[in-house]
Amino acid sequence: MLRLPLDGLHRELGAKFFEFAGWEMPMKYTSSLRESLAVRNSVGIFDVSHMGRFILRGGDAVDFLQRATSNDMNVSNGRSRYTLTLNHAGGIRDDNVAFKLADDFIIFVVNAANREKIWNWFQKLLSQWEMDVQLSDETFKTAMMAIQGPKARDLVHGVLGMTLNLRKFSVQEHVHEGARFVISRTGYTGEDGYEIVTWDLHWAESLFRRLVEAGASPCGLVARDILRLEAGLVLYGNDIDENTNPFEARLDFAIKLEKEDFIGRDALVRIREEGIKRLRVGLLSETRNSPRRGDRILRDGKEVGSVTSGTFSPILGRGIGMGYVRPDLAKVGEELTIEGMKKFKVMVSKMPFYDESKYGWRRST
Amino acid sequence: MHEVPEDRLYTKTHEWVKLEDGGAKMGLTSYAVEELGDITYIEVKPLGTTVRQGEPVGLVESSKTTEKIYAPLSGEIIELNGEAGVVEEGSDEIPMGLEVISEDPYGSGWILKLRVGPGVEEERKNLLSPEEYRKLLEEQV
Q1: With 0-12 CB in 10 A as exposed, 13-18 as middle and 19+ as buried, what is A231?
Q2: B89-110 b/e with 16+ CB inside 10 Å = b?
Q3: Residues of chain B with C-beta less than 8 angstroms from the C-beta of A33
């Protein structure tokens, strides 16, 4: 099993571990519920070094991602963008974030479970396309952490002793305290915050430690899953995979059919013409019962879909989940029944599930 | 290593049961609560329900999963641990205090009490002794 570069620090902080995508990852430090609440109300820190980090260099780096992924990657330098790597049938190979630092310097973040798959896929594309792109996998040379929550910004600025002028979805490279790092105002919790990638593993440990000492709650992967579900964000392998298309997954915002050709485009045009057969929805339980992956979704006793992920939401005090249902049942407020270990009622909910005037990065502070 | 008190019996599904004056108190083992992660909800069948050994008596939900709770012995449910946040199924209550189930699973974190009949002597043979349960845990690691 792969170990995080900061493994020793997590042990020192009392983490309980579990296996995730071949990595031994902190599952939780204290309580996943408390950790997720700390992120909503204050600030938490996650080691996300298990995520794959590819670096694209060369004059055709942007053009390569334009052809290999679905979103418009021709963005200004210093912007971070969510995009999808599709297969030729329009299915989702991976969902990614690209940190575009320069035209010839892009960090491309892939899901841990898909690192080798996407590496091989990109190598194959590069061998066919003859582009000026140098691709390197720097996952094991770098560390990555996410600092998330309404107090993340002040905390990071205080600990680093520098004021960053970084808008949401923007990214910068710095050399500070002798360490080289990239910092992006992005995350996977719905809250404001930063993701930091650094080549200096000692500095990464020192920074993580200082952020915890300054008040960031160390958070495990279970808290991360609760937070991304509350925010309505998809998890690859659960809510999306090679057999889901971006329209039914409601990731249309990451599809730019009007840009030049990209892999999966023809299939997406056909899928759209044929019509969408199911849609991803948020499921809000009437009780504390949580929908669970694999549970059946019923309407009037008939199966109309299935649950792809679910958990208990501590800020709502109720079970929440995501699943796919027939399009006519995807409207907010539709009443459905979940049948798994037990049977209970849920309502199709907007996502994020929480009140966005009180929680999340758009909240009024 | 997980704590396995000597003064009670165990199931293969990680419940414990302790016989005491006409009743049997049951709960989840420390192994079970650790595997579950944060427990978010526990419901059991209504008071007065008669359950048979090995049948589901309730449900536990956690930050990671949902699992059934099985009756270690046959009997009638005569008490549930409301203070720990255990509720009857179908209840509208939003229970609080479930931390105690994880923090003190063999003590104040018990789940329910059963009134057991004379059949208990025969049924005990289907349960695991502390030694047997410890062995089961070793095999699982």
Answers
A1: buried
A2: eeeeeebeebbbbbeebbeebb
A3: 38, 40, 63
**What top-level class would CATH report for the domain B12-121?**
mainly beta
Domains and CATH numbers, chain A: 2-49+142-230 (3.30.1360.120), 53-139 (3.30.70.1400), 277-352 (2.40.30.110)
Candidates B40, B44, B62, B99, partner chain A, best to mutate (most A CBs within 10 A): B40
What's the gap between Cα A247 and its chain centre? 18
Kind plus residue range of the DSSP H or E element containing A205: helix A201-213
Residue from the list B37, B63, B68 with its beta carbon closest to the beta carbon of A341: B68
Consecutive H or E run containing A91: none
Q: How far is A109 from chain B (nearest CA, A)?
A: 26
- Strand duo A79-86 + A92-102: pairing: antiparallel
Tokens of A237: 């392998």
Considering only the beta carbons, identify the residue of B37, B61, B63 that sits closest to A289: B61
Q: Chain A residues with CB inside 8 Å of B67's CB?
A: 341
Measure the CA angle with vertex A85, ends A106 and A112; round to 5°: 75
Q: Are A69 and A260 in contact (CB under 8 A)?
A: no
Pairing, β A318-325 against β A302-313: antiparallel
- Cα separation, A307 vs A321, in Å, equals 7
Tokens standing for residue B124: 């005990």
* Residue A213, burial from CB neighbour count under 10 angstroms (0-12, 13-18, 19+): exposed
**Is-contact A132 A28, C-beta < 8 A?**
no
For residues A63 and A130, give the distance between their C-alpha atoms in angstroms, rounded to a whole number: 12
Tell me the pTM.
Answer: 0.93
- Could you report the predicted ipTM of this complex, rounded to two decimals? 0.81
Q: Helix, strand, coil shares of chain A as percentages rounded to 5?
A: 25, 35, 40
Per-residue pLDDT of chain B (141 residues; tens, 9 = 90+): 789 999 999 999 999 999 988 799 999 999 999 999 889 899 999 999 999 999 999 999 998 899 999 999 999 999 999 999 999 987 766 666 788 999 999 999 999 999 998 899 999 999 999 999 999 999 987
The residue extents of the domains of chain B are: 12-121
Neighbours of B11 (CB within 10 A): 23
